[in-house]
Amino acid sequence: MADGDKVAGRTFAPSAEMTAGAHVDKARYDEMYAASVNDPEAFWAEEGKRLDWIEPYTKVKNTSFEFGNVSIKWYEDGTLNVAANCIDRHLETRADQTAIIFEPDEPDGEVQHISYRELHEKVCRFANVLLSQGIMRGDRVIIYLPMIPEAAYAMLACARIGAIHSVVFAGFSPDALANRINDCGAKAVITADTAPRGGKRTALKSNTDAALLHCSDKVRCLVVKHTGDQTTWIDGRDVDVKAMMETVAPDCPARPMNAEDPLFILYTSGSTGKPKGVVHSSGGYLVYAAMTQQYTFDYHDGDVFWCGADVGWVTGHTYILYGPLANGATTLMFEGVPTYPDASRFWQIIEKHKVTQFYTAPTAIRALMGQGTDFPARCDLSSLKVLGTVGEPINPEAWAWYDKNIGKGQLPIVDTWWQTETGGHMITPLPGATPTKPGSATLPFFGVQPVVLEAESGKVVEGNPAEGVLAIADSWPGQMRTVWGDHERFESTYFQQYKGYYFSGDGCRRDEDGYYWITGRVDDVINVSGHRMGTAEVESALVAHSKVAEAAVVGYPHEVKGQGIYAYVTLMNGVEPSDELRRELEGWVRTEIGPIAKPDLIQWAPGLPKTRSGKIMRRILRKIAENDYGSLGDTSTLADPSVVDDLVDNRMNRG
Ligand code: ATP
Ligand code: MG
Fold first, then answer.
1. Which cofactors, if any, are listed as required (predicted)?
2. Strand-strand pairing, 482-483 and 413-416
3. What is the mean pLDDT of residues 162-191?
4. Ligand 1 pocket residue status of 425, Cβ below 6 Å
């Protein structure tokens, strides 16, 4: 029996020890949750106090989901500064505590422990550099940096002076960068000379030079000399940030901002279409980031928190930077990748820095799982208390591996469902409170009111079990406020189809216990001979086979069945594709799920097209399966565009 089968369908209760020390146990969760939805005003008025306000708010919630009239405001008459909340207010008690642990790409590179005091000075100096370049409140600044402390300084420096940052993954192409610079009308780009990652270097500065050819010549280019690699230099436009930081004042006042002033714009990963410029607020966002970081991971003083995401992803914004720092936490920032120099890198970092909470994506777990169990077995992981995942439903096989090899069968795994748009966790277990079921994101976070709607009619499905699309009935403080420069797109994307609700775009099931199971994006549901099926289920079955490392399933037009099942399969290291294996996999899915789920076509895929946040771009796979290569859509957010060419070639070869 596959390990996944042994855990699927089971419930894992938090240990007594976990519950005893936790901020929230089951009774407290029930009580707080009820309070949060029965009287949101009072609940969030109280939670807002976790921040320091310059001008305290008197209004808490002012929100409307009415299509044509959507408006979301929280704490709207309060003023605060986000950077001051993440740094200054901790100086009295934590000046010498490490705020950020920086772990470089090379295991023998220089680790940095940046204290709150040092963070304060660096951020002030960085802010003064921005001011010296004429960057003012409300201006947009693109941050195109690797995972280095300067990325954190840059983000917080923007927050300090009221500029709006937009972080672009360091892995993105010049085109993707130029699109974002132009879309938000950025006044400056902050970049680095080159970025080491997994032993390779990305030429960020020359990418930026290439991007800026397509932008206004007024855009300033601020360069962090990180590796010292040679780059071109344009006098009058390019600024040496580190050199300049030495010359400016070490202090910079934190500017009072309105709670509703935008803190950042972040473009979605583009799994489903052209990336949207998601706008987040200062006050509500930070309240929500801080609160979810504390409760979802049961963070306590003295813990070492590690979110392994990239800062270019919302997960990095909320759970590397803003949430932990608002809580005065110690947060770890890792420049490299999980498999360099080998697949023990993550586990060694946990051992080295005595990480207590570790948060990653199922795709990373599956990649590491493919490398066997020796790598984690060699490391001391005993500091860990809580494990987390985000990004897609975690298949039972990956859950079982994570639980057994990393959690040693002892630790809670929080499977957190949320989106760039939501700012923070929406449906998630709390470590001391929620019994978990592998593959389920379980129950709503405080203040979140999920509803299951019938896909066609939009009617609310009452009672359990229920199945349909996932929507949210009322606002929460971390919610996005608009799409940058396109409020209409905001309304039409999220509020038009199901009136009165925020529509997530995801399908879901709610079981007898009221637990939510995300079944994937609504676009990814396939209809085979009248049976609706989530592609995630078929993928999960394929991945449960010992020879399969990854799988992606899409529908394609099928003369008889309406839609057929097309599976892209990446095999484990060292396994050779063969017709025999193809038949074996077909038979495997047949027995795991049923004859209806048997793939009609299996294509061997050496790699799958993924976004930089590790998500499979199924819309591209759909096009390839449909033999429609002319309109692959926006591919600018792919981690490795060459993967697509390979898949297209193989598809064409088989006719
Ligand atoms: P775009 O909106 O541009 O298509 P995206 O949706 O991939 O991009 P994100 O905001 O990074 O961009 O991802 C959010 C989506 O990820 C969710 O809507 C959901 O489909 C999926 N997701 C995230 N966490 C989970 C989880 N724990 N379980 C299931 N699905 C998840
Ligand atoms: Mg999305």
1. Mg(2+)
2. unpaired
3. 94
4. no
Structure tokens at 485: 């420069």
d(CA 501, ligand 1 centre) in Å: 18
List binding-site positions for CoA. 197-200, 315, 529, 590
Domains and CATH numbers, the chain: 3-447+454-509 (3.40.50.12780), 529-650 (3.30.300.30)
Looking at residue 641, its amino acid is P
Nearest atom of ligand 1 to the alpha carbon of 441? 27
Q: Give the pTM.
A: 0.90
Over range 575-583, report the average pLDDT: 94
Token digits for 263?
A: 């803190």
Q: Angle 579-592/535-543 helices, nearest 10 degrees?
A: 120
Ligand 2 midpoint to CA 504 (Å): 7
In whole angstroms, what is the distance from residue 468 CA to residue 424 CA? Answer: 23
Q: In this prediction, what percent of the chain has a pLDDT beyond 90?
A: 83
CA 344 – ligand 1 centroid, Å: 27
Evaluate whether ipTM surpasses 0.90: yes
Residue 360, ligand 1, Cβ within 6 A: no
Return the pLDDT at 654.
Answer: 61
> From the CB of 504, is ligand 1 less than 6 Å away?
yes
- State if residue 272 touches ligand 1 by the CB under 6 angstroms criterion: yes
User: Does residue 219 have its Cβ closer than 6 Å to ligand 1?
Assistant: no
Mean pLDDT of the chain: 94
- Pairing type for strands 140-144 and 164-167 reads parallel
pLDDT of residue 55: 98
Our mutation pick for probing the ligand 1 site, out of 418, 492, 537, counting the most ligand atoms within 8 A of Cβ, is 418
Return the ∠ at Cα 23 (arms to 19 and 26), rounded to 5°: 55
Distance 233 CA to ligand 1 centre (A): 39
Note whether 604 and 569 are within 8 A (CB).
yes
Annotated binding site: 197-200, 315, 391-393, 415-420, 506, 521, 529, 532, 543, 545, 548, 590
Atom of ligand 1 nearest to the CA of 518: 29
Q: Report residue 78 CA to chain centroid gap.
A: 28
pLDDT for the residue numbered 41: 98
User: Could you say which DSSP state residue 427 is in?
Assistant: B
Q: Is 441 helix (H, G, I), strand (E, B) or coil?
A: coil
pLDDT in tens, 63-101: 999 999 999 999 999 999 999 999 999 999 999 999 999
Ligand with minimal distance to 611 CA: 1
Cα–Cα distance, 563 to 390 (Å, whole number)? 29
Per-residue pLDDT for 655 more than 60?
no
- Rounded Cα distance, 270 and 521, in Å: 13
- Is the shortest distance between the CB of 535 and ligand 1 below 6 Å? no
pLDDT tens digit string along 125-163? 999 999 999 999 999 999 999 999 999 999 999 999 999
Give the distance from CA 436 to its chain's centroid.
Answer: 21
Cα–Cα dist 423/314, whole Å: 7
Q: 12: which 2 tokens?
A: 């894992």
Site of tokens 């692959």: 632
Task: State the residue for tokens 């992981």.
Answer: 381
